[in-house]
Amino acid sequence: RGKDEKYRVWMPKLRVAKEYKDKRKSIDDMERNIFKFRKNSEEKSKKMDEEEKLFRETFMYHKEIRVLATATAERSVPSQRRADLPLTAGEQLDVIDTVQGHALICRNAQGRYGYVLVEHLNFR
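The structure corresponding to this sequence follows.
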């Protein structure tokens, strides 16, 4: 034998469980489908733009849309009018503007805008 073979250590070939191979393949497939995510985000941004346009027409809001604060809905409230924003308990809302009285203009995660009463919100 040569010098190199004398110090070679024999290592057993480890067998990989079939479940692990399948999981690894699915992770590789997810990494390859990056473009589908981008397509969905483009569709979502188009929908948000449409909602913003509808909001500006409905509320005659010509100022810049800035988030003043974030709030969570304390309870579920159905909308009484078209201008009201329906709420579900625990939903995160962005406060856009304050209006006279106890109403705020808010935006939900789907991009819809509407009036919400202050009593239904928690500002923590």
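The CA atoms of residues 74 and 82 lie 21 Å apart.
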